[in-house]
What we know:
By secondary structure, this protein is α+β, with helices and mostly antiparallel strands. It contains 8 helices and 18 strands. 26% of the residues lie in helices and 21% in strands. Keywords: Iron, Metal-binding, Oxidoreductase. It comes from Suillus plorans.
Amino acid sequence: MSNNPIPIVDFAPFLDGSAKQQTADQLLGSFKSYGFLYLTNFGISNEEVQEMFDLSKRFFALPHESKMLAPYPEARTHHRGYSFPGREKLPDAGDVAEMPLPSVKETFDIGREDDDSMLNVWPPDHILPGFKELCLAFYWKCHEVEKNILRALALGFGLEEEWLVRHHRMPDNNLRLQHYPSIPLESVLTKKVARISNHTDYASLTVLFQDNVGGLEAEDPNEPGRYLAVSPIPNSVVVNAADFLRRWSNDVIRSPMHGVRAPQDMVTEDGMLPDRYSIPYFCAADFSTVVDTIPGTWSADYPKKYEPMSVGKYMLKRLADGY
Length: 323
């Protein structure tokens, strides 16, 4: 990891108040330069994270017919419940002439329970007792992490600490359990399938928990087309900025291209990539709001690039494009 330039930010001095502005400046600087960072001491214990990975593995180990008792709705904008491998397709941004590759992963998506516009879809309780309760508890723990990151970003921009949090009150977020089944390395190298093709995320930011298999890569801002390994670091979480936050910040913040490739050092003797698990938490501003450019990110010399935009309108279009 010594050659990895992606910043590592210790969040403890922000959370305990000992160096809030310094940490905020470091976090915003990381978003400006790379759009990616590792966050340590972020407020969720290693035991709680491991409990969620264990739960995720138990869910994806269920028979297909059991998982399909909580099926993804047919509506492309309703991202809840179980989605089987190959359903999600993302274009390979590295070659726009290519057709979208099937994404060989299965997912389970969770939102807040009081969202009448996008209801959760749960398996029957007897299928995996405690699944719903543990998922929702982790969802709200991630929301606390999100709010603290937003507070730090606001301070970095020179704004009042709650400025960004006030636009993320609902919260219209998505917790996703992901499983990448073991597949032949050859099928990825020949572009028959992808784990996840290169893409950018849609909303404000993404908080990503990953196992030790690796494969996540982000585009090098100093050398377009070259990708940096975002390898797992113990006791950390990966945070990346997304497209709406880039737009909202008048392109001050980067929304980096990234994808999941084939880590060659993890390939088994028979040429198979091992199973991989990750848990992203996608954070969005309230769908009901219309946002304008963040104060301080524009001036007479650097004018606004974007008109005010409805969060809901933007997000639902992007969600539909992936299915």
